[in-house]
Design brief:
About 65% of the residues lie in helices and about 0% in strands. The chain is mostly helical and about 200 residues long. It folds into 2 domains: about 55 residues, Homeodomain-like (Arc Repressor Mutant, subunit A), CATH 1.10.10.60; about 140 residues, Tetracycline Repressor, domain 2. Helix 5 packs across helix 8. The relative contact order is 0.14.
Length: about 200
C-alpha cells in the first residue's frame, strides 16, 4: 500500500472517532507511520486531507453516475439520495464538533471554500441533475430544482442524523427503501403524469 493510501486510512479512522475538530495531523501521521512533513507533501492542510477522505472513502452523490435522460428519474434520484444518506451518516461524527466552536468553524469554512469543498456541493449535484431533466421535459416545468434539491438533501440529512443519534457510531447504513420513500415523497408530485423512461 502506498504512502498516500496509508495516510488516508489513518485519517479516516481517526476522523471517524475523534472528529476533525480534535484530530491532529500529527496523530494521523503517527498512525500512518509517516512523519508529519511527509503527510504535508501529500495534503497541504487538514482540510485538504478531510476532503480527500470525504471524496475518496465515503459514498456520496458525486460518485453516483446518473445521466439526464437515461433511466427513470425517480430511480436516479433514489440512487443519489441513498448515497447522500450514507455520506451524512458517516460524516456527522467527523464534522459535528465543529459546530460548537465558532472560531474553528470559521477557519474550516474558509479552508473548505479555498479547496472547493463544503456542504452546499451535494445540493448542487441534485439541482443540476433536476435542471437537466427539466430541460428535456422529464421534470415539471414549474418545479424549482434548487428548492427540490434542498428538500431532498434536507430530508436525507435529517434521516441520517436521527439514525446516528438513536443508534450511535454503530448505526447500520440506511436501506435503499428509506431513500426510495424520501424521493417518492419529495419528487413524485413534480413528475409529469407519464414521465418518459430512458
Amino acid at each position: 500500500m502506498g504512502t498516500r493510501e496509508r495516510i488516508l486510512d489513518a485519517a479516516e479512522q481517526i476522523l471517524r472517532t475523534r472528529g476533525v475538530a480534535l484530530a491532529t495531523t500529527k496523530e494521523i501521521a503517527q498512525a500512518a507511520k509517516v512523519s508529519e512533513p511527509t503527510l504535508y507533501k501529500y495534503f497541504e492542510d487538514k482540510e485538504r486531507l478531510l476532503l480527500a477522505v470525504l471524496k475518496e472513502r465515503l459514498p456520496g452523490p458525486a460518485r453516483i453516475p446518473v445521466q439526464p435522460g437515461v433511466g427513470d428519474v425517480e430511480d436516479n434520484l433514489t440512487e443519489l439520495a441513498h448515497a447522500a444518506l450514507d455520506f451524512y451518516q458517516q460524516s456527522i461524527p467527523m464534522l459535528g464538533a465543529l459546530l460548537a466552536d465558532p472560531k474553528r468553524m470559521a477557519a474550516h469554512r474558509i479552508a473548505m471554500n479555498r479547496h472547493g469543498g463544503g456542504p452546499d456541493k451535494a445540493a448542487t449535484i441534485f439541482a443540476s441533475y433536476l435542471r437537466a431533466e427539466q430541460a428535456i421535459d422529464r421534470i415539471s416545468p414549474g418545479a424549482d430544482p434548487d428548492a427540490v434539491a434542498a428538500l431532498l438533501i434536507g430530508a436525507c440529512f435529517h434521516t441520517a442524523f436521527l439514525r446516528y443519534y438513536s443508534e450511535g457510531p454503530t448505526a447500520t447504513a440506511a436501506p435503499r427503501a428509506t431513500a426510495e420513500a424520501l424521493t417518492r415523497a419529495v419528487v413524485r408530485p413534480l413528475l409529469p403524469p407519464s414521465a418518459p423512461q430512458g
